[in-house]
Amino acid sequence: MGFLQLLSVASFPVIKVLLVTALGLFLALDNISILGDDARKIVNQLVFYVFNPSLVSTKLAKTITFESVVQMWFMPFNILSTFLLGSALGWILIKMTRPPKQMEGLILGCCSAGNLGNLPIIIIPAICQESGSPFGDSDVCYEYGMAYASLSMAIGAIFIWSYVYNIMRISASRIQKEDGTSNGSGILKASGDTSESHPHKFSETLTPTKDTMDDAYTLLLPDAESEEKVSVSSKIKNRLRVISSNLNLKVMFAPSTLGTIAGFVIGLISPFRNLLIGSSAPLHVVEESVSMLGEAAIPTLTLVMGANLLKENNYGEMHGAGLKGSSTPLWTVVGIVAVRYIFLPLLGVAVVKSAIHLSLVHSDSLYQFVLLLQYALPPAMNISTIAQLFGAGESECSVILLWTYAFASIAVTLWSTFFLWLVS
């Protein structure tokens, strides 16, 4: 296929996403208010609790077999690689740009966690259904592409709420500890001046303890020092204990993850598969009903993504979070855009091509494309939720998301074109 044909195949799905996203943004405007705050909350809950799990479970149940599980074993390692490489690049960016302390955890989160769920679920089916797609029959491509994207969503959610969640939690805890120390000394020197100088509010559950500050995740944050000298084995045991005790299992096993588990169980266990999957299955009406709910996920998800972007932008504007005159350093934003759209995709090409060369990845071009695409996505929307949860870097997060998603239309299109050429 020629470059222009590949560019059109890659650009049309992104254009579709942009058009529907723009509609969602338009519906969320104050003058229209169809997707206002209350409506957005309800639609978000529908997507989170009903549509996404239905979509994930049905697509996996139809396509998952023991052979496909063996073939897809590399995907969790690939997603872990995106997080680790992104964290390393984020750490370098922090060292180079010296951002404010409250932004360190946010920068690591934005550099490591990509939108591994929403965008692949939207983009991959659209590419499959484009005329001239290099992935063969559109129906087969759609079924397997949705299975790959659904698995990507579930694994990405687990890593975000276990890895990034704890990095940002510990970063916020360190800021709280420093603010608490400075507040204490301020009270001794000049009472009444400290109440306005540290306006951040934190949940009581975020109160830092010695164990929290000794967490292994603090190794990613600059200037982290241990208060005591202990044996290496004791420190490792302590860190593992702290990490396991602080993992938020409730958010890790989100509805989409449970839908993934259900899809694997139905797809891999023959009695369940024979009972639910296929037109001759006794309970096929159940599967078809769940599938009908799942079909609503993609358009609704795209509308909500546009509405949420407007929410982020408005939130940033309320706090004066434009690049000009904001607390967000310009070069930090530029650095995050460069990490997500230049350096991480280049490293991803090296990782995936090396895995293919070592026969760790099977020859399915669609599967290889999904693995490559996971390195070239904007930051996950859940980063905003985590920032709001810990009350650190909220306005800065709105600016970062606004600019990274603005550049996504160009970057994702160009990288998708290159990836299509690479695997075709």
Automatic annotation (TrEMBL):
The keyword Mitochondrion does not apply. GO terms for cellular component: endoplasmic reticulum membrane. One of its GO terms (biological process) is endoplasmic reticulum to cytosol auxin transport. The chain crosses the membrane at residues 6-30, 73-94, 106-127, 147-168, 247-270, 330-352, 372-392, 399-423. Coiled coil: none annotated. Residues 178-209 are annotated as: Disordered. Belongs to the auxin efflux carrier (TC 2.A.69.2) family. This is Uncharacterized protein. It comes from Sphenostylis stenocarpa.
